[in-house]
Amino acid sequence: MSKIPNRASPLPPEARKAAIIEAVIPAMIEHGAALTSRQIAEAAGVAEGTVFRAFGDKETLLREAAETYLDPAPLRARLAAVESSLPLEEKVCAVLTLLQQRFHGVISIMAATGRIGDAPPDVRQRTPERPWEYVSIVSALMKPELERLNVPLEDIAPYVRLIAFATSIPAFNQERVFDPRELSRLIVYGVAGGGEPEDEDAARAQAGHAASRGMASTEQRDEASTLQAVDA
């Protein structure tokens, strides 16, 4: 008589919840506000009843999945993994691509939770951890190109983030879809060529402007740190 194979042990409740959240996040990004309970169950590979037993209701699941997705640590790790020896344009393209994916996901996640223009309460109340880490990571990545730059090193990260955000909003991109390579060339070279100063006076003026902006950025960081300490 053949032995009946043992069934796999059921997951502990917290492990099951984590597995469902991990499986549901891509479905939230794909479907946004149109996501249904049936699609959630299909994405997680479980019955709808299992989802409701684990989370109580759909809204709780979506809120907890949003909190998980909005954790900045995985994105920071991927940014830090970009190779600093790559050419400047390729590094900008890599950062831009990661940020576009991130913003697209955030917009879809917020749509799925019904909170476009807002964040789930638990996420909104959470103080951002190490708010300057993104700028530090991108600055370290671009530092080998320091002699080529016409702007302070710490300004690159906000510039790339602004362009990534704007090109991730569907309403802003109805006429055409902007390719990350195209946008990275725009960031690196501008719209009028290499952007080299016309003479030494212009070069000195540009260098002085960059230095003063760098000092202002340092003061802004100090002020932000002070405000954060007060808020804490």
From TrEMBL:
Keyword Disulfide bond: no
HTH tetR-type domain: residues covered: 14-73
Keyword hit for Transcription: yes
Region (Disordered): 195-232
Keywords from the UniProt entry: DNA-binding, Transcription, Transcription regulation
Signal peptide interval: none
Designated name of the protein: TetR/AcrR family transcriptional regulator
Source organism per UniProt: Humibacter ginsenosidimutans
